[in-house]
Design goal:
Blueprint lengths: L2 H19 L6 H25 L6 H18 L4 H14 L1 H13 L12 E3 L13 E7 L4 E9 L7 E7 L2 H13 L5 E4 L2 E6 L2
Antiparallel strand pairs: 1-2, 2-3, 3-4, 4-6, 5-6
Helix pairs in contact: 1-3, 2-3
Length: about 200
C-alpha cells in the first residue's frame, strides 16, 4: 500500500473521531462538506489513473481506488452514519463508568445546572475522554414533585433544525414512558441501553 494512501487513511480516521467527539456542532457540516469534496477529487484522480493504466493495470492502483471510494462512501453516506455508529458503540463502553459516576453526583445533588441562563445545562470540566459531545455539557431536569431526575449526555448537538442525539439516564416514570414510546415508534434511532438508560434522537 502506498504511503500516500496510508496518510489519507490516518487523516480520515482523525477526522472521523474529531467529528464525533470534538468538533462544534455548528462546524461539523462545513468540515463534512470539505472532506467529501476532497475525497471526491481524489477519487476522480484515482479513476483517471486507472483508466490511463488500463492496459497495464497494477493491483496497487486498484487497491488505492477501492480505498478512496470506500472512504468517500463512508463519509458521504448519511453524514458519516456508519463510522459514527461504530464510534458511538466504542464511546458508550469506554465512558460508561465515567457517565455512571456523573449520574451518581447529579442524583446526590453534588452536580447541578451551573450556567447563568438557568436552562438545565451543567458544564463539566473538559477531561479526556469527554462524556458529552459538543462542549462536554450535560442537561439536567429535576421533577421536584417526584424527586426524580433526567440527565442527558449529548452524542450529537445537531445544527439548526437537525436532530439532537443523547445517551439519557432517567429514573422519572413519566420520562421513561415517553422514551419507551419513542423506542417503539422509531426503533432505528432510539433504543434501550440498559435499566434507566436509553439512546434517543430528538427531532423537535
Amino acid at each position: 500500500m502506498e504511503r500516500k494512501i496510508l496518510i489519507l487513511i490516518t487523516i480520515w480516521l482523525v477526522f472521523a473521531f474529531a467529528d464525533y467527539f470534538y468538533l462544534p456542532y455548528f462546524v461539523q457540516p462545513f468540515t463534512w462538506l470539505l472532506v467529501c469534496i476532497t475525497l471526491l477529487i481524489l477519487l476522480v484522480r484515482q479513476i483517471t489513473k486507472v483508466y490511463k493504466d488500463r492496459k497495464n493495470l497494477k493491483r496497487k492502483r486498484l487497491l488505492n481506488l477501492l480505498i478512496t471510494f470506500l472512504l468517500f462512501f463512508l463519509t458521504f453516506y448519511n453524514f458519516n452514519k456508519i463510522p459514527n455508529s461504530i464510534i458511538e458503540k466504542i464511546d458508550w463502553n469506554i465512558s460508561y463508568n465515567k457517565r455512571t459516576n456523573i449520574v451518581k453526583e447529579v442524583l446526590s445533588g453534588n452536580l447541578k445546572p451551573n450556567t447563568e441562563m438557568n436552562n438545565g445545562i451543567c458544564k463539566l470540566p473538559f477531561d479526556f475522554p469527554i462524556v458529552s459531545n459538543g462542549g462536554n455539557d450535560i442537561w439536567i431536569y429535576e421533577n421536584t414533585r417526584e424527586k426524580t431526575k433526567t440527565i442527558k449526555f449529548w452524542i450529537s448537538r445537531g445544527f439548526f433544525d437537525s436532530p439532537q442525539t443523547y445517551f439519557i439516564f432517567t429514573n422519572d416514570n413519566e420520562d421513561k414512558k415517553h422514551y419507551e414510546e419513542e423506542i417503539k415508534t422509531e426503533p432505528e434511532y432510539n433504543w434501550k441501553m440498559e435499566e434507566n438508560w436509553c439512546r434517543i434522537m430528538e427531532r423537535d
